[in-house]
Amino acid sequence: MSLYYRWKNFEEDEDRPEKPRRFGVTEMRGPNHTLLTQNVLQEIFESMGQFVDGLKFSGGSHSLMPKPFLKQVIDMAHQHDVYVSTGDWAEHMIRKGPSAFKDYIEGCKQMGFDTIELNVPSLEVPEDTLLRYVRLIKSEGLKAKPQFAVKFNKSDIPTGGNRAFGAYIPPPPPRSTELVEDVELLIRRAERCLEAGADMIMIDADDLCKHADSVRADVIAKVVGRLGLEKTMFEASNARASEWFVKQYGPRVNLFVDQSQVMDLECLRGRNLGKNHTSVMQGELKRGDVAKSIQHYMHGNGVSEDADREHIKNLMREAWKKVKVHRAAASPLFQTVIGIILNLVRTAHCIYQHGDGH
């Protein structure tokens, strides 16, 4: 049984599976545009490590870090049962030749990486070559995670039945710069990667769900239906997209999110209330509960409920900034005591931010 709470499925009651998990995986974006210090990552792992399954070094950021620092971060992740994945970097090594890619795999293994991600759109290699890379990664004892996008160069799309049988060779340059959508090609390539031994298929869903209101549900349904929920991971570029995925496919869906969204995502996995809890608040008022801060601000300032909600969220953001400032400041308290206080704040935020709590 989980040490944290009962994990409620939308259809049945069950415990939150312990790590390593086959489904309900949360992969967290690691250092990328903003360099997370070792202390920040340690705080994340200590406070939310139970909810983080993987750490991904996006954008090839690991190539810019000193090896001793990178090794310390990887070892720290492993101490909390968090696997570590590379990001978009393999394609740069492939351009240097097959031997350079093999050296890259061996270097990742020595450094302690568990998974190597292959950004298929950036590789620009024939399908049989892609499958050979997947097998090469598996032969070194690492996990392979090809990443696909829905849009392809028009010149890469095979004609007739070539799409469904065997590998195809894209035409030589010049390549078309016109991007067109082809879900069947994505699925077929992903299926062949799984047959070759790939452990997970990452779907770059940025073009599909930049905004939750315009999610291409038909495309995602086809991908899940053919590849399976357990073998597919979606990149949720924002909190609303994460909420959409959990509501549509339940807490078993695998998602790649920013480190700032981990706690929100875990709360969404735990129950199906979502961000909009107006009905909960109105129900409390009908029962005669005391007025909340939202009602006080609305009546005192004559603003709408939506404007008031945004004001309350801003207050919460400012409060978190103050918490982080005091966390970094010198204090006579033991670090254990400070950690307990921070965990109480995180727990309160987790319990009440989506509704009336657990």
UniProtKB/TrEMBL annotation:
Residues 278-322 form the Terpene synthase metal-binding domain. Belongs to the phosphosulfolactate synthase family. PANTHER family: PROTEIN HEAT-STRESS-ASSOCIATED 32 (PTHR48413:SF1), PTHR48413. This is Terpene synthase metal-binding domain-containing protein. It comes from Hibiscus sabdariffa.
